[in-house]
From TrEMBL, chain A:
<dbReference type="Pfam" id="PF01796">
    <property type="entry name" value="OB_ChsH2_C"/>
</dbReference>
<dbReference type="InterPro" id="IPR002878">
    <property type="entry name" value="ChsH2_C"/>
</dbReference>
<dbReference type="InterPro" id="IPR012340">
    <property type="entry name" value="NA-bd_OB-fold"/>
</dbReference>
<protein>
    <recommendedName>
        <fullName>DNA-binding protein</fullName>
    </recommendedName>
</protein>
<dbReference type="InterPro" id="IPR022002">
    <property type="entry name" value="ChsH2_Znr"/>
</dbReference>
<feature type="domain" description="ChsH2 C-terminal OB-fold">
    <location>
        <begin position="57"/>
        <end position="116"/>
    </location>
</feature>
<dbReference type="Pfam" id="PF12172">
    <property type="entry name" value="zf-ChsH2"/>
</dbReference>
<feature type="domain" description="ChsH2 rubredoxin-like zinc ribbon">
    <location>
        <begin position="20"/>
        <end position="54"/>
    </location>
</feature>
<dbReference type="InterPro" id="IPR052513">
    <property type="entry name" value="Thioester_dehydratase-like"/>
</dbReference>
UniProtKB/TrEMBL annotation, chain B:
<keyword id="KW-0808">Transferase</keyword>
<feature type="domain" description="Thiolase C-terminal">
    <location>
        <begin position="245"/>
        <end position="383"/>
    </location>
</feature>
<dbReference type="Pfam" id="PF22691">
    <property type="entry name" value="Thiolase_C_1"/>
</dbReference>
<protein>
    <submittedName>
        <fullName>Acetyl-CoA acetyltransferase</fullName>
    </submittedName>
</protein>
<dbReference type="InterPro" id="IPR016039">
    <property type="entry name" value="Thiolase-like"/>
</dbReference>
<dbReference type="InterPro" id="IPR055140">
    <property type="entry name" value="Thiolase_C_2"/>
</dbReference>
<dbReference type="GO" id="GO:0003988">
    <property type="term" value="F:acetyl-CoA C-acyltransferase activity"/>
</dbReference>
<dbReference type="InterPro" id="IPR002155">
    <property type="entry name" value="Thiolase"/>
</dbReference>
Length: 129, 385
Protein backbone atom coordinates (compact mmCIF):
# COMPACT_ATOMS: atom_id res chain seq x y z
CA UNK A 1 0.00 0.00 0.00
CA UNK A 2 1.45 3.34 -0.97
CA UNK A 3 1.42 6.05 1.65
CA UNK A 4 1.85 8.91 -0.80
CA UNK A 5 -1.49 10.31 0.29
CA UNK A 6 -1.23 14.03 0.93
CA UNK A 7 -2.99 15.32 4.00
CA UNK A 8 -4.06 18.94 4.49
CA UNK A 9 -2.01 21.07 6.87
CA UNK A 10 -3.92 22.08 10.01
CA UNK A 11 -4.92 25.75 9.92
CA UNK A 12 -4.46 26.00 13.72
CA UNK A 13 -5.68 28.84 15.95
CA UNK A 14 -4.71 30.34 19.31
CA UNK A 15 -6.85 27.80 21.19
CA UNK A 16 -5.21 24.76 19.60
CA UNK A 17 -1.70 25.94 18.63
CA UNK A 18 -0.08 24.12 21.58
CA UNK A 19 -1.50 20.81 20.32
CA UNK A 20 0.15 21.24 16.93
CA UNK A 21 3.43 22.50 18.41
CA UNK A 22 3.57 19.32 20.52
CA UNK A 23 2.66 17.19 17.48
CA UNK A 24 5.82 18.50 15.80
CA UNK A 25 7.72 16.90 18.74
CA UNK A 26 5.81 13.64 18.24
CA UNK A 27 3.62 14.22 21.32
CA UNK A 28 -0.12 13.51 21.29
CA UNK A 29 -1.84 15.95 23.62
CA UNK A 30 -5.25 16.01 25.22
CA UNK A 31 -6.84 18.56 27.50
CA UNK A 32 -7.83 17.83 31.09
CA UNK A 33 -9.98 19.94 33.35
CA UNK A 34 -8.44 20.44 36.79
CA UNK A 35 -11.83 21.42 38.23
CA UNK A 36 -13.84 18.28 37.34
CA UNK A 37 -10.94 15.98 36.41
CA UNK A 38 -12.37 14.99 33.01
CA UNK A 39 -10.18 14.70 29.92
CA UNK A 40 -11.57 15.71 26.52
CA UNK A 41 -10.70 15.77 22.81
CA UNK A 42 -10.46 17.76 20.55
CA UNK A 43 -8.97 20.39 22.85
CA UNK A 44 -10.99 23.36 24.08
CA UNK A 45 -10.05 26.12 26.51
CA UNK A 46 -13.37 25.84 28.38
CA UNK A 47 -14.18 22.36 29.73
CA UNK A 48 -17.19 21.05 27.76
CA UNK A 49 -18.40 19.15 30.85
CA UNK A 50 -18.24 21.65 33.74
CA UNK A 51 -17.49 24.93 31.91
CA UNK A 52 -14.43 25.62 34.03
CA UNK A 53 -11.59 27.48 32.30
CA UNK A 54 -9.07 25.50 34.35
CA UNK A 55 -8.09 23.17 31.52
CA UNK A 56 -4.50 22.04 31.11
CA UNK A 57 -2.53 20.24 28.40
CA UNK A 58 -1.54 16.64 29.13
CA UNK A 59 0.54 14.31 27.01
CA UNK A 60 -1.57 11.22 26.28
CA UNK A 61 -0.15 7.71 26.11
CA UNK A 62 -1.17 7.49 22.47
CA UNK A 63 -2.66 4.08 23.23
CA UNK A 64 -6.25 3.02 22.88
CA UNK A 65 -8.74 0.58 21.38
CA UNK A 66 -10.89 0.71 18.26
CA UNK A 67 -14.46 1.78 19.14
CA UNK A 68 -15.69 1.46 15.56
CA UNK A 69 -14.42 1.68 11.99
CA UNK A 70 -15.56 1.67 8.38
CA UNK A 71 -13.51 0.94 5.30
CA UNK A 72 -14.31 3.34 2.48
CA UNK A 73 -13.71 1.07 -0.50
CA UNK A 74 -13.28 3.79 -3.12
CA UNK A 75 -12.31 7.46 -3.05
CA UNK A 76 -10.31 9.82 -5.30
CA UNK A 77 -7.29 9.04 -3.09
CA UNK A 78 -7.94 5.32 -2.77
CA UNK A 79 -9.44 3.21 0.02
CA UNK A 80 -9.18 4.43 3.61
CA UNK A 81 -10.46 3.32 6.99
CA UNK A 82 -12.09 5.88 9.25
CA UNK A 83 -12.98 5.18 12.87
CA UNK A 84 -12.93 6.18 16.49
CA UNK A 85 -10.29 5.19 19.02
CA UNK A 86 -11.10 5.24 22.73
CA UNK A 87 -7.90 6.46 24.37
CA UNK A 88 -6.53 4.90 27.56
CA UNK A 89 -7.21 8.29 29.16
CA UNK A 90 -10.93 8.07 28.29
CA UNK A 91 -11.88 10.32 25.38
CA UNK A 92 -12.73 8.82 21.99
CA UNK A 93 -11.12 10.45 18.97
CA UNK A 94 -11.93 10.36 15.28
CA UNK A 95 -9.07 9.12 13.10
CA UNK A 96 -7.93 7.00 10.17
CA UNK A 97 -6.20 3.66 10.57
CA UNK A 98 -2.93 3.40 8.63
CA UNK A 99 0.05 1.13 7.92
CA UNK A 100 -1.93 -2.10 8.23
CA UNK A 101 -4.32 -4.46 6.43
CA UNK A 102 -7.47 -2.33 6.48
CA UNK A 103 -9.75 -5.33 5.97
CA UNK A 104 -8.56 -6.92 9.22
CA UNK A 105 -9.49 -4.15 11.63
CA UNK A 106 -11.60 -5.21 14.61
CA UNK A 107 -13.62 -3.39 17.23
CA UNK A 108 -11.71 -3.66 20.52
CA UNK A 109 -8.34 -4.01 18.79
CA UNK A 110 -5.40 -2.23 20.50
CA UNK A 111 -3.91 0.65 18.52
CA UNK A 112 -1.31 3.38 18.99
CA UNK A 113 -0.83 6.86 17.61
CA UNK A 114 1.46 7.56 14.66
CA UNK A 115 2.03 10.97 13.08
CA UNK A 116 1.97 11.63 9.32
CA UNK A 117 3.54 14.71 7.77
CA UNK A 118 1.69 17.58 6.11
CA UNK A 119 2.99 20.88 4.76
CA UNK A 120 2.41 22.18 8.30
CA UNK A 121 2.15 20.34 11.61
CA UNK A 122 1.90 16.52 11.40
CA UNK A 123 -1.49 14.82 11.87
CA UNK A 124 -2.23 12.00 14.32
CA UNK A 125 -3.34 8.61 12.96
CA UNK A 126 -3.60 5.19 14.56
CA UNK A 127 -2.10 1.83 13.71
CA UNK A 128 -2.36 -1.61 15.35
CA UNK A 129 -0.22 -1.76 18.52
CA UNK B 1 -47.45 26.35 26.25
CA UNK B 2 -47.77 23.86 23.45
CA UNK B 3 -48.02 23.89 19.67
CA UNK B 4 -50.44 20.97 19.75
CA UNK B 5 -53.21 21.67 17.26
CA UNK B 6 -52.03 25.26 16.69
CA UNK B 7 -50.88 24.73 13.09
CA UNK B 8 -52.12 22.78 10.07
CA UNK B 9 -50.29 21.71 6.92
CA UNK B 10 -52.54 23.12 4.22
CA UNK B 11 -50.30 22.79 1.16
CA UNK B 12 -47.72 20.28 -0.04
CA UNK B 13 -45.74 19.91 -3.24
CA UNK B 14 -42.97 17.53 -4.25
CA UNK B 15 -41.09 18.37 -7.42
CA UNK B 16 -41.45 15.48 -9.90
CA UNK B 17 -37.96 16.01 -11.31
CA UNK B 18 -35.10 13.78 -10.26
CA UNK B 19 -32.57 15.36 -12.66
CA UNK B 20 -32.77 19.05 -13.54
CA UNK B 21 -29.67 20.14 -15.51
CA UNK B 22 -31.72 22.77 -17.37
CA UNK B 23 -33.06 24.55 -14.28
CA UNK B 24 -31.49 26.84 -11.68
CA UNK B 25 -31.63 26.03 -7.98
CA UNK B 26 -33.59 29.21 -7.27
CA UNK B 27 -36.01 28.24 -10.05
CA UNK B 28 -36.64 24.87 -8.38
CA UNK B 29 -37.41 26.73 -5.13
CA UNK B 30 -39.90 28.90 -7.02
CA UNK B 31 -41.49 25.89 -8.70
CA UNK B 32 -42.04 24.06 -5.41
CA UNK B 33 -43.28 27.25 -3.71
CA UNK B 34 -45.80 27.73 -6.52
CA UNK B 35 -46.84 24.08 -6.26
CA UNK B 36 -47.49 24.21 -2.50
CA UNK B 37 -49.29 27.57 -2.74
CA UNK B 38 -51.57 26.20 -5.48
CA UNK B 39 -52.13 22.96 -3.55
CA UNK B 40 -53.29 25.00 -0.56
CA UNK B 41 -55.46 27.23 -2.72
CA UNK B 42 -53.97 30.49 -1.48
CA UNK B 43 -52.11 33.36 -3.17
CA UNK B 44 -48.40 33.95 -2.81
CA UNK B 45 -49.29 37.43 -1.59
CA UNK B 46 -50.95 35.83 1.46
CA UNK B 47 -47.65 34.34 2.68
CA UNK B 48 -46.43 36.16 5.79
CA UNK B 49 -43.79 33.70 7.00
CA UNK B 50 -40.88 32.18 5.06
CA UNK B 51 -38.60 29.32 6.10
CA UNK B 52 -35.56 27.99 4.25
CA UNK B 53 -32.26 26.26 5.04
CA UNK B 54 -28.73 26.11 3.64
CA UNK B 55 -29.90 24.91 0.22
CA UNK B 56 -31.62 28.25 -0.54
CA UNK B 57 -29.26 30.26 -2.75
CA UNK B 58 -27.95 33.22 -0.72
CA UNK B 59 -30.22 32.51 2.24
CA UNK B 60 -33.55 34.03 3.26
CA UNK B 61 -33.44 37.59 1.97
CA UNK B 62 -32.36 36.84 -1.61
CA UNK B 63 -34.96 34.05 -1.72
CA UNK B 64 -37.79 36.23 -0.39
CA UNK B 65 -36.94 38.76 -3.09
CA UNK B 66 -36.49 36.21 -5.89
CA UNK B 67 -39.73 34.41 -4.99
CA UNK B 68 -41.61 37.72 -5.17
CA UNK B 69 -43.09 37.28 -1.72
CA UNK B 70 -45.20 40.15 -0.44
CA UNK B 71 -42.72 42.08 1.70
CA UNK B 72 -45.45 44.42 2.99
CA UNK B 73 -47.01 41.36 4.58
CA UNK B 74 -44.04 39.07 5.30
CA UNK B 75 -43.31 39.39 9.02
CA UNK B 76 -41.49 36.22 10.06
CA UNK B 77 -38.41 34.48 8.61
CA UNK B 78 -36.35 31.53 9.85
CA UNK B 79 -33.33 30.04 8.13
CA UNK B 80 -32.46 27.36 10.70
CA UNK B 81 -29.91 25.04 9.11
CA UNK B 82 -29.76 21.51 10.48
CA UNK B 83 -29.05 19.54 7.31
CA UNK B 84 -31.65 17.05 6.14
CA UNK B 85 -34.02 17.56 9.06
CA UNK B 86 -34.09 21.37 8.67
CA UNK B 87 -37.60 21.28 7.18
CA UNK B 88 -39.05 19.20 10.01
CA UNK B 89 -37.56 21.73 12.42
CA UNK B 90 -39.02 24.52 10.25
CA UNK B 91 -42.45 22.89 10.56
CA UNK B 92 -42.20 23.06 14.36
CA UNK B 93 -40.85 26.61 14.29
CA UNK B 94 -43.65 27.66 11.92
CA UNK B 95 -46.17 26.24 14.40
CA UNK B 96 -44.49 28.17 17.23
CA UNK B 97 -44.61 31.39 15.22
CA UNK B 98 -48.26 30.80 14.29
CA UNK B 99 -49.15 29.99 17.91
CA UNK B 100 -47.45 33.22 19.01
CA UNK B 101 -49.27 35.25 16.36
CA UNK B 102 -46.06 36.09 14.51
CA UNK B 103 -47.35 34.80 11.16
CA UNK B 104 -50.42 33.05 9.82
CA UNK B 105 -49.37 31.48 6.50
CA UNK B 106 -45.84 30.06 6.41
CA UNK B 107 -44.03 28.82 3.31
CA UNK B 108 -41.16 26.32 3.68
CA UNK B 109 -39.03 25.46 0.63
CA UNK B 110 -36.25 23.00 -0.19
CA UNK B 111 -34.61 22.52 -3.59
CA UNK B 112 -31.27 21.77 -5.21
CA UNK B 113 -29.28 19.80 -7.74
CA UNK B 114 -26.65 17.49 -6.25
CA UNK B 115 -27.17 15.04 -9.13
CA UNK B 116 -26.34 17.71 -11.70
CA UNK B 117 -23.44 19.39 -9.93
CA UNK B 118 -21.28 19.62 -6.87
CA UNK B 119 -22.89 20.91 -3.68
CA UNK B 120 -21.34 23.99 -2.06
CA UNK B 121 -19.07 23.09 0.90
CA UNK B 122 -20.30 23.62 4.44
CA UNK B 123 -18.48 26.20 6.56
CA UNK B 124 -15.85 24.63 8.84
CA UNK B 125 -16.67 24.01 12.50
CA UNK B 126 -14.32 24.24 15.48
CA UNK B 127 -13.43 20.57 14.95
CA UNK B 128 -12.09 21.04 11.40
CA UNK B 129 -8.34 20.63 12.07
CA UNK B 130 -9.02 17.55 14.19
CA UNK B 131 -11.37 15.75 11.82
CA UNK B 132 -11.51 16.98 8.23
CA UNK B 133 -8.34 15.16 7.12
CA UNK B 134 -9.91 11.81 8.05
CA UNK B 135 -12.48 12.00 5.27
CA UNK B 136 -15.75 11.48 7.10
CA UNK B 137 -18.46 11.19 4.44
CA UNK B 138 -22.07 10.18 4.75
CA UNK B 139 -21.21 6.62 3.67
CA UNK B 140 -18.48 5.94 6.19
CA UNK B 141 -20.01 7.96 9.04
CA UNK B 142 -23.15 5.80 8.84
CA UNK B 143 -20.96 2.76 8.21
CA UNK B 144 -19.28 3.41 11.59
CA UNK B 145 -22.71 3.45 13.28
CA UNK B 146 -23.76 0.22 11.56
CA UNK B 147 -20.46 -1.48 12.44
CA UNK B 148 -20.87 -0.68 16.13
CA UNK B 149 -24.59 -1.51 16.16
CA UNK B 150 -23.77 -4.94 14.73
CA UNK B 151 -21.04 -5.39 17.36
CA UNK B 152 -23.21 -4.37 20.32
CA UNK B 153 -26.55 -5.89 19.29
CA UNK B 154 -25.87 -8.58 16.70
CA UNK B 155 -27.68 -6.65 13.97
CA UNK B 156 -27.06 -8.25 10.57
CA UNK B 157 -26.70 -7.07 6.97
CA UNK B 158 -29.72 -9.24 6.13
CA UNK B 159 -31.85 -7.31 8.60
CA UNK B 160 -30.68 -3.97 7.23
CA UNK B 161 -31.44 -5.21 3.71
CA UNK B 162 -35.12 -5.68 4.64
CA UNK B 163 -35.42 -1.90 4.95
CA UNK B 164 -34.37 -1.44 1.33
CA UNK B 165 -36.61 -4.33 0.26
CA UNK B 166 -39.63 -2.64 1.89
CA UNK B 167 -38.80 0.71 0.26
CA UNK B 168 -38.54 -0.97 -3.15
CA UNK B 169 -41.94 -2.62 -2.72
CA UNK B 170 -43.42 0.87 -2.30
CA UNK B 171 -41.36 2.55 -5.03
CA UNK B 172 -42.74 0.24 -7.73
CA UNK B 173 -45.99 2.25 -7.53
CA UNK B 174 -44.35 5.70 -7.66
CA UNK B 175 -44.01 6.82 -11.30
CA UNK B 176 -41.43 9.44 -10.29
CA UNK B 177 -39.20 7.06 -8.29
CA UNK B 178 -35.60 6.77 -9.52
CA UNK B 179 -35.44 3.06 -8.65
CA UNK B 180 -38.72 1.25 -9.35
CA UNK B 181 -37.53 -2.37 -9.36
CA UNK B 182 -38.50 -4.56 -6.43
CA UNK B 183 -35.33 -5.98 -4.88
CA UNK B 184 -34.61 -8.91 -2.57
CA UNK B 185 -32.43 -9.28 0.49
CA UNK B 186 -29.94 -11.18 -1.70
CA UNK B 187 -29.85 -8.30 -4.20
CA UNK B 188 -28.85 -5.92 -1.41
CA UNK B 189 -26.19 -8.28 -0.01
CA UNK B 190 -24.79 -8.88 -3.49
CA UNK B 191 -24.50 -5.18 -4.32
CA UNK B 192 -20.96 -3.79 -4.01
CA UNK B 193 -19.60 -2.90 -0.58
CA UNK B 194 -19.32 0.91 -0.39
CA UNK B 195 -18.14 1.51 3.17
CA UNK B 196 -18.19 -1.48 5.50
CA UNK B 197 -20.70 -2.80 6.41
CA UNK B 198 -22.95 -0.78 4.05
CA UNK B 199 -23.58 -2.04 0.51
CA UNK B 200 -24.59 0.14 -2.40
CA UNK B 201 -28.25 -0.78 -1.87
CA UNK B 202 -28.01 0.26 1.78
CA UNK B 203 -27.47 3.81 0.45
CA UNK B 204 -30.06 6.32 -0.75
CA UNK B 205 -30.13 7.77 -4.25
CA UNK B 206 -28.62 11.11 -5.26
CA UNK B 207 -31.26 13.29 -6.91
CA UNK B 208 -32.12 16.81 -7.92
CA UNK B 209 -35.51 18.17 -6.92
CA UNK B 210 -37.25 19.72 -3.99
CA UNK B 211 -40.45 20.23 -2.08
CA UNK B 212 -42.47 22.83 -0.22
CA UNK B 213 -45.10 23.17 2.50
CA UNK B 214 -47.73 25.70 3.49
CA UNK B 215 -48.36 25.78 7.25
CA UNK B 216 -51.23 27.85 8.59
CA UNK B 217 -53.68 28.53 11.41
CA UNK B 218 -56.59 26.15 12.16
CA UNK B 219 -59.05 28.86 11.04
CA UNK B 220 -57.40 29.44 7.66
CA UNK B 221 -56.90 25.70 7.07
CA UNK B 222 -60.59 25.09 7.68
CA UNK B 223 -61.49 27.79 5.13
CA UNK B 224 -59.49 25.95 2.43
CA UNK B 225 -60.50 22.86 0.47
CA UNK B 226 -57.86 20.29 1.41
CA UNK B 227 -58.35 17.51 4.00
CA UNK B 228 -57.22 18.81 7.37
CA UNK B 229 -53.86 17.71 8.71
CA UNK B 230 -52.69 19.20 11.99
CA UNK B 231 -49.40 19.13 13.84
CA UNK B 232 -49.93 17.74 17.33
CA UNK B 233 -46.38 17.16 18.52
CA UNK B 234 -42.88 18.27 17.65
CA UNK B 235 -39.39 17.69 18.93
CA UNK B 236 -35.85 18.63 18.02
CA UNK B 237 -32.46 17.66 19.41
CA UNK B 238 -28.75 17.52 18.66
CA UNK B 239 -25.95 15.09 19.44
CA UNK B 240 -22.19 14.97 18.94
CA UNK B 241 -19.09 13.28 20.36
CA UNK B 242 -19.00 15.93 23.13
CA UNK B 243 -15.34 15.93 23.92
CA UNK B 244 -15.12 12.19 23.22
CA UNK B 245 -16.74 11.19 26.52
CA UNK B 246 -18.79 7.97 26.58
CA UNK B 247 -18.99 7.81 22.80
CA UNK B 248 -22.00 5.76 21.72
CA UNK B 249 -22.82 5.70 18.01
CA UNK B 250 -25.67 3.20 18.38
CA UNK B 251 -28.24 5.88 19.17
CA UNK B 252 -29.10 9.25 17.66
CA UNK B 253 -30.59 12.54 18.82
CA UNK B 254 -33.94 10.97 17.89
CA UNK B 255 -33.82 9.41 21.34
CA UNK B 256 -34.59 12.92 22.65
CA UNK B 257 -36.61 14.51 19.81
CA UNK B 258 -38.99 11.54 19.62
CA UNK B 259 -40.19 11.44 23.25
CA UNK B 260 -40.57 15.25 23.21
CA UNK B 261 -42.89 15.00 20.22
CA UNK B 262 -44.86 12.02 21.56
CA UNK B 263 -45.31 13.70 24.94
CA UNK B 264 -46.64 16.86 23.35
CA UNK B 265 -48.97 14.85 21.13
CA UNK B 266 -50.16 12.76 24.06
CA UNK B 267 -49.82 9.51 22.13
CA UNK B 268 -47.33 6.61 21.97
CA UNK B 269 -45.53 4.91 19.07
CA UNK B 270 -48.19 2.14 19.18
CA UNK B 271 -50.80 4.69 18.01
CA UNK B 272 -48.90 5.55 14.81
CA UNK B 273 -50.45 4.17 11.60
CA UNK B 274 -47.81 5.38 9.16
CA UNK B 275 -44.15 6.38 9.61
CA UNK B 276 -41.99 8.55 7.38
CA UNK B 277 -38.46 7.83 8.61
CA UNK B 278 -35.40 9.45 7.08
CA UNK B 279 -33.59 6.77 5.10
CA UNK B 280 -30.26 8.21 4.01
CA UNK B 281 -29.04 4.67 4.69
CA UNK B 282 -30.76 1.53 5.92
CA UNK B 283 -29.00 1.88 9.28
CA UNK B 284 -30.50 5.38 9.65
CA UNK B 285 -34.00 3.86 9.63
CA UNK B 286 -33.13 1.05 12.01
CA UNK B 287 -31.57 3.37 14.58
CA UNK B 288 -34.43 5.88 14.34
CA UNK B 289 -37.09 3.21 14.84
CA UNK B 290 -35.34 2.17 18.04
CA UNK B 291 -34.75 5.74 19.19
CA UNK B 292 -38.37 6.73 18.58
CA UNK B 293 -39.57 3.79 20.66
CA UNK B 294 -41.12 1.58 17.98
CA UNK B 295 -38.99 -1.21 19.46
CA UNK B 296 -36.37 -1.58 22.16
CA UNK B 297 -32.78 -0.46 21.56
CA UNK B 298 -30.96 -3.29 19.82
CA UNK B 299 -34.13 -4.96 18.54
CA UNK B 300 -34.42 -2.86 15.38
CA UNK B 301 -33.03 -5.69 13.27
CA UNK B 302 -35.79 -8.05 14.32
CA UNK B 303 -38.38 -5.29 13.96
CA UNK B 304 -37.60 -4.46 10.32
CA UNK B 305 -37.13 -8.05 9.13
CA UNK B 306 -39.62 -10.12 7.16
CA UNK B 307 -41.42 -7.20 5.54
CA UNK B 308 -42.64 -5.52 8.73
CA UNK B 309 -42.24 -2.09 7.09
CA UNK B 310 -44.18 -2.97 3.92
CA UNK B 311 -47.59 -1.34 3.59
CA UNK B 312 -50.38 -3.93 3.75
CA UNK B 313 -47.94 -6.60 4.96
CA UNK B 314 -46.19 -5.45 8.13
CA UNK B 315 -47.14 -3.65 11.32
CA UNK B 316 -45.49 -0.32 10.53
CA UNK B 317 -45.83 0.89 6.92
CA UNK B 318 -42.97 3.29 6.22
CA UNK B 319 -41.87 5.60 3.38
CA UNK B 320 -44.65 4.57 1.02
CA UNK B 321 -43.29 6.82 -1.74
CA UNK B 322 -40.13 4.67 -1.88
CA UNK B 323 -38.25 7.19 0.28
CA UNK B 324 -34.67 8.21 -0.20
CA UNK B 325 -33.60 4.62 -0.78
CA UNK B 326 -35.64 4.39 -4.02
CA UNK B 327 -37.59 7.55 -4.92
CA UNK B 328 -35.52 10.68 -4.36
CA UNK B 329 -33.28 12.56 -1.98
CA UNK B 330 -33.41 16.18 -3.13
CA UNK B 331 -30.32 18.19 -2.13
CA UNK B 332 -29.12 15.15 -0.16
CA UNK B 333 -31.78 16.11 2.38
CA UNK B 334 -34.69 13.84 3.21
CA UNK B 335 -36.75 15.81 5.74
CA UNK B 336 -39.10 17.58 3.35
CA UNK B 337 -40.23 14.52 1.42
CA UNK B 338 -40.82 12.71 4.72
CA UNK B 339 -43.41 15.32 5.74
CA UNK B 340 -44.99 15.36 2.27
CA UNK B 341 -45.62 11.59 2.12
CA UNK B 342 -46.99 11.63 5.69
CA UNK B 343 -49.47 14.34 4.67
CA UNK B 344 -50.44 12.33 1.56
CA UNK B 345 -51.15 9.33 3.78
CA UNK B 346 -53.28 11.38 6.18
CA UNK B 347 -55.17 12.99 3.30
CA UNK B 348 -55.74 9.59 1.67
CA UNK B 349 -53.75 10.76 -1.37
CA UNK B 350 -51.01 8.09 -1.32
CA UNK B 351 -50.96 5.55 -4.16
CA UNK B 352 -53.89 3.14 -3.62
CA UNK B 353 -51.48 0.19 -3.51
CA UNK B 354 -49.67 1.67 -0.50
CA UNK B 355 -52.35 3.83 1.12
CA UNK B 356 -52.75 2.88 4.79
CA UNK B 357 -56.38 2.26 5.76
CA UNK B 358 -57.90 4.69 8.28
CA UNK B 359 -54.61 6.55 8.50
CA UNK B 360 -55.27 9.14 11.20
CA UNK B 361 -51.90 9.42 12.96
CA UNK B 362 -48.52 9.65 11.25
CA UNK B 363 -44.97 10.51 12.18
CA UNK B 364 -42.38 12.30 10.06
CA UNK B 365 -38.88 12.01 11.48
CA UNK B 366 -35.49 12.99 10.16
CA UNK B 367 -31.88 13.59 11.00
CA UNK B 368 -29.38 16.05 9.59
CA UNK B 369 -25.61 15.99 9.49
CA UNK B 370 -23.73 12.74 10.11
CA UNK B 371 -25.05 10.22 12.65
CA UNK B 372 -21.52 8.94 13.14
CA UNK B 373 -20.11 12.39 13.91
CA UNK B 374 -22.52 15.19 14.92
CA UNK B 375 -26.09 15.70 13.90
CA UNK B 376 -29.57 17.04 14.58
CA UNK B 377 -32.88 15.22 14.68
CA UNK B 378 -36.46 16.36 14.47
CA UNK B 379 -39.78 14.59 14.92
CA UNK B 380 -43.25 15.74 13.86
CA UNK B 381 -46.49 13.99 14.75
CA UNK B 382 -49.42 14.70 12.48
CA UNK B 383 -53.12 13.95 12.84
CA UNK B 384 -55.94 13.87 10.31
CA UNK B 385 -58.84 15.87 11.64
Amino acid sequence: MSEAKKYPAPVTNPETAAFWDAAKQGKFMIKRCTACGEAHYFPRSICPFCYSDKTVWEEASGEGTIYTWSLMRKSPTGPYAIGYVTLKEGPSVQTNFVDCDLEKLKIGQKVKVVFKPTDGAPLPFFTPA
Amino acid sequence: MTIKGKAYIAGIYEHPTRHAPDKSTAQLHAEVAKGAIEDAGISKDDVDGYFCAGDAPGGAWPMVDYLGLNTKKLRHVDSTETGGCSYIIHLGHAAEAIAAGKCSIALITLAGKPRTGVMPPRAAGAEADFESAYGATTHNAYGMCAMRHMHDYGTTSEQLAWIKVAASHHAQYNPHAMLKDVVTVEDVLNSPMISDPLHRMDCCVVSDGGGALIVTTPEIAKSLKKPLVKLIGHGEAMKGPRGGKDLDLTYSAGIWSGPRAFEEAGITPKDIKYASIYDSFTITVLMQLEDLGFCKKGEGGKFVADGNLISGVGKLPFNTDGGGLCSNHPVNRGGMTKIIEAVRQLRGEAHPKVQVKNCDLAIAHGTGGLLGVRHAASTAILERV
